[in-house]
């Protein structure tokens, strides 16, 4: 039976708004708390690459990555960059990050856990989009990975692990790939298509539509910045915001990269860091891919959106406060033109848009989904890193199940917040 509690959900990104929809479905009253506009440019959900990659089960850290750390420190424009000025603060997180991928067995454990979280995600998102009246924003037509050679694919631990966890794909020869992608640079000679995966045509518009659906279903939205959680013993009594307290008897922390201060307010100092990301988008580019794809050499996702051709990827460790390094967006743009030589070189600057935002990342590549130690009235749902959009659909269902005291539909032990405490 539903407890029918008043649930305050902190964060109106993809995880927060879907948690609101699912909590309403369980019979709870819901108040969404966010200082920004749902789906607005300030949100990580807005700048997402748009992939619904249910096969994104490999954490960022893999065995041997420690050998590359000096290069990350020396190259501010590499696929993973660490700013020297932020290194002392990031060091504890980075050590846990390296240790989490120290052995193949550790990476495999995360792959199996993430597979449970992400499996069937495109179908779950399609149902949500239909409920919200925007079914056209979710497509399940597969995604492509392209490689300079077959050897690049065969030597990739990630693909061996994907096979172990049940991911299937279609392999493409050079000719088959050229038939599918005639504008792709000929240096790419091998490809795979993961047919179960999908894409979102406009992540910002999708999150905004889900938020509107939640509000139309009875949720309330409070525009405020949450700063903490207030307990009376082991009972939650309010969410503290800069505008005052919001009384409630349950709360969900889904504030993305800004969740750390909230968990610390109830005694859970979790190792959350931001993997800063960038995207570049070309409006009306006149050329490009026919399918959504990822290039193995550029570590970059290329995806058509309703606003234009978007390229997103790479990681920068520099915290929440540092100014963006827009040269990183230029690298994405240059990689995009390199991948697709037929793109016009004289595209006006007014048609090239750039964006910068904050992925919320735990060092082991798994989000925190579970109860706070201080109170089962508080549910954590953050830290999804590179799988925030794709993982949000099932995360919202899990949040609602936890709020109602039901058995979660997947094993949550790998995502338990107390694994770091």
UniProtKB/TrEMBL annotation:
<dbReference type="InterPro" id="IPR006076">
    <property type="entry name" value="FAD-dep_OxRdtase"/>
</dbReference>
<dbReference type="Pfam" id="PF01266">
    <property type="entry name" value="DAO"/>
</dbReference>
<feature type="domain" description="FAD dependent oxidoreductase">
    <location>
        <begin position="6"/>
        <end position="402"/>
    </location>
</feature>
<keyword id="KW-0560">Oxidoreductase</keyword>
<dbReference type="InterPro" id="IPR036188">
    <property type="entry name" value="FAD/NAD-bd_sf"/>
</dbReference>
<dbReference type="GO" id="GO:0005737">
    <property type="term" value="C:cytoplasm"/>
</dbReference>
<dbReference type="GO" id="GO:0016491">
    <property type="term" value="F:oxidoreductase activity"/>
</dbReference>
<protein>
    <submittedName>
        <fullName>Amino acid dehydrogenase</fullName>
    </submittedName>
</protein>
